[in-house]
Description:
The protein is mainly alpha-helical and 90 residues long. The protein has a domain at 17-76. It has helices at residues 17-29, 34-61, 69-76.
Amino acid sequence: xxxxxxxxxxxxxxxDPALLRALRVSAAERDTTMRAIVFEALRDWLRRKExxxxxxxxxxxxxxxxxxWEQVKARLGIDPSEGAADGRAT
Length: 90
């Protein structure tokens, strides 16, 4: 945790005794804490959600209109010769 960061606590109520037991067993087998496993699971879940959002944005962008690079530069008011002196494609 970063220095100066405040810790927060939450309580988790397990309605499924088998899930809690599996968590306890898994923590013991891995010589770690239930807390560490829950944090890892939350991080993985958040990462997957972000990837899903990215994938949705990419899928949506596929439907966007494509335009030639010269036309895009003209719309943005970029000099067509800009970048040619250093060998980059224009």
